[in-house]
Structures are given as structure tokens and as C-alpha cells.
Amino acid sequence: MQSILQCMDCQQQYPINQLLYTCENCGGLLDVIHDWSGMMLTHELFDNRLGSLEFPYNSGVWRFKELVYPTVDNSMIVSKPEGNTNLYPLPKLADWAGVEKLYLKHEGENPTGSFKDRGMTSGVTQAQVLGMERVACASTGNTSAALASYAALADLDGIIFLQNRAIALGKLAQGIAYGATCIRIDADFDRNLELVREVSKRLNIYVLNSVNPFRLEGQKSIMFEALQQLKWQVPDWIVCPGGNLGNSAAFGKALKELYDLGLIDKIPRLAVIQAKGASPLYQAFTREFEDFEPMKAETIATAIKIGNPVNYKKVVRAIEWTNGFVEMVTDQEIMDAKALIDNSGIGCEPASAATLAGTRKLAAKGIIKPHETVVGILTGHVLKDPDATIGYHSGTLEDISPKHPNLLLESRDDIEEIVALLTNKSDTVKANL
User: Fold this and answer.
1) Using CA atoms, how far apart are residues 12 and 24, in angstroms rounded to an integer?
2) For the chain, is the Cβ count within 10 Å smaller at the N or the C terminus?
3) CATH (domain of 311)
């Protein structure tokens, strides 16, 4: 029993311990393919590990080790542990979105505050297997935070290529705090990804962007865990934001594998939601994927501010496998949805809120039916981009008019003035109900 790397285009196969990101034969993206013959993969196997204190099964990724990387020795695994994020039933947000049943799975509850930890545990583990000493990524913020943390945990040198503008300070601070070498470059994410791949090739550094197929193996566990939390009852829809498209590519692979293994009896539909200013996948979807055109990305949702997603072909495949859909939402729609998620006590970064905004839009169009069950993915923590949150509620964000503001009140050292402020606010809230 041995896992392999396989090109998704020409099917060329390579050993799993070969340092590759794309096919040497045709340049296609690689999949990690596992040999599950002879393995007893059942719900009970994974359910019996829930709540385990034993390494590595205390991780919400490695609880599903057989589905993620069955042949890796446990001594090589680098885990914090990650995963074990909550799945929240939210009837008020379901009503706002126009569906009867909505769950939001909050990947912002991972150790560094985003879903990227799930991919980084598997990616850094493979760096250990390959004997690498340095790891690197280009990042809009979340990947850099995860890479820096896991590299430090594994005693590897972490290197981060950042664009020199529009980086949320909450994300930049993490990379610096965890000790990575951070380089701000006068280029956007897409160019930085090209640069990091070329530099890493010259200097023998392991690239941990989602072009690395081992990253996506860890991110598959979001689907495994969500379905386990639903007691393996399959929802009608999985809705997630789309930037570099690693998550949605991983979800499609995970769902097909679960179905092929008989662990689920149907495949839910996958909806990928992009910001209007960074929507090359959506634009291609409207042309039935006949052609793909990169774009200059501009959106307040910095985590999905990507105009030339590396996993485009894998997501097209995922959409085909799942009879999926692609939608786009404006920054206004994203920030209004974020305000409602935040106000529900859950909280998320802007990119995450594309999930809720997209669900509402698809329900309004009749794509998602009112009676259907939706699982939405929140990708990052509310503190990842506090400037966007404060800017929204104070009404200072360019071209965005807050529909759900929570204004910061100010008062002198005067009890009567404070009482008046609270009374007026209470009256305003009641009037708006």
C-alpha cells in the first residue's frame, strides 16, 4: 500500500517522496492519490477517535489520517493540534439568507485563526518527510501566519513573500511574531507566487502554497469533520469563499473520495463565492469554462484578493463532480453579511462573509431552494482584519455604506449623559426590531 503523486491532466505518476508541485511531463497540477485497498474505512473508525487525547488523533485533521496521509509515520507529523472547529446552527442567519437550515463551520477557531492550519499541518509534515530545512509561501496573510507557526514548531526556517500594501496587520503581525523571514515586495499576490516558486527552486526551499498537493490533503478534513458533526447526514449544499481556490478544490476531492469509499450516499453541491473585484472563476463559469482570463484583483476581502488562482483547473473539476455553482458578491454585500455574522456572536474576517452573502444571493435566485440544508464555511477569525471591522461600523470604508452599523459611543465623565446614551440606544434597537 503506497500513496503516489498523479498529474490530473496526463495521469503521469510519481513517487510520493519526489519533490514536485506540477507534472514534469505536461505541467499539470498534481493530486495525492492513496491506495485504500484492504483498509477498513468506516464511520466508527473515525467516530471512535472523537475526543481522543492520543497524538495525532487529537487533531481534527489527523483523526482522519487514513484519508489524509495513511503511510506517513506518526513521528513525522507536525500538529498543534488543529481542526476540531465548531459547526454552528444559526436559524436567524438562515432566515436572513432565505433557507430553512444553515450551519456555519468556523475555521477561524484553528490555532492561528484560519483554515490554513489544516493544510499547513500536512504540508509541513511532508517537508519533514522530504528532509527540507526551509519552507516558503506567498501570502495575503493567513497562509503566512500558518506557515510561520508550523515552521517554528518543526524548527524549520519560514520565509514569507508579502505584497507591500493591503495586508491586514493582524495577519502580518503573526508572521513576524512566529519568527519567519518576512519580505514585503512591490507586487501583488499572483506575482509573489511566481517569485516564491522561482526563488525556492534556486535555493532548495519547500513551497507551501496550495499549488503543493499535500496542502490540499489536510484541507480535505474540513469536509470530513463537518459531515462527522452532522452524523454523516449529507447536506444539500457546501458554500465557501473562493480565492486561490485551494479549499474548494480540496472539498471537491474530499467529497468524491468519501462517496467512492461508500462513506456518504450522495455528493452535496458545492458553491464557490468570489468577491466581484476578484472573480476570474465566476467570469469563466458564466462562459461555461470555455476560457479563463486572469484579472487584477481588488476587494476589501484580502484573503480572497487573487486574480489568477493556481487551483483553477482543480476547482472546475470539483464543480463538475458536485454539479456545483459559482457566484460573486460585492464588497458591500460581504461587509453587510459580516456584520450579521459578527453580531450573532460568531465573528469572521471579511472573506468568510462571502459565504453568507453568496448563500443569500443564490437563494434569492432560486438556485438554493428554501428547504435545502446549507453548510457554509467561515475561513478566518474576526480579529484577522480589525481595521475593516472598525471601518465598516464607523462608516469610513470607501464605497461601502453600512446597513448594520454598531456605532462607537462617546461620553464625558457624566452619569446622566451615559444613562441618556444607553436609553437612546435601547430605544433605537427596539424601533428597529
Assistant:
1) 9
2) C
3) 3.40.50.1100
C-alpha 201/C-alpha 195 separation (Å) is: 10
Number of domains in the chain: 2
Give CA–CA dist 6/25, Å, rounded. 11
pTM of the model: 0.95
Domain of 328 in residue numbering reads as 87-113+215-390
Q: pLDDT tens for residues 182-223?
A: 998 888 888 988 999 999 999 999 999 989 999 999 999 999
Task: Spell out the SS3 assignment of the chain.
Answer: CCCEEEECCCCCEEECCCCCCECCCCCCEEEEECCCCCCCCCHHHHHCCCCCCCCCCCCCCHHHHHHHCCCCCHHHCCCCCCCCCCEEECHHHHHHHCCCEEEEEEHHHCCCCECHHHHHHHHHHHHHHHCCCEEEEEECCHHHHHHHHHHHHCCCEEEEEEECCCCCHHHHHHHHHCCCEEEEECCCHHHHHHHHHHHHHHHCCEECCCCCHHHHHHHCHHHHHHHHHCCCCCCCEEEEECCCCHHHHHHHHHHHHHHHCCCCCCCCEEEEEEEHHHCHHHHHHHCCCCCCCCCCCCCCCHHHCCCCCCCHHHHHHHHHHHCCEEEEECHHHHHHHHHHHHHCCCCCCHHHHHHHHHHHHHHHCCCCCCCCEEEEEECECHHHCHHHHHHHHHCCCCCCCCCCCCCCCCCCCCHHHHHHHHHHHHHHHHHHC
Rounded to an integer, what distance in angstroms lies between the CA atom of residue 178 and that of residue 333?
A: 34
* Amino acid symbol at 383: L
Q: At what angle do helices 386-394 and 169-177 cross, to 10 degrees?
A: 160
Same domain, 360 and 257: yes
**pLDDT one-digit tens code per residue, 24-66:** 999 999 999 999 999 999 999 999 999 999 999 999 999 999 9
349 burial (CB, 10 Å; 0-12 / 13-18 / 19+) is: buried
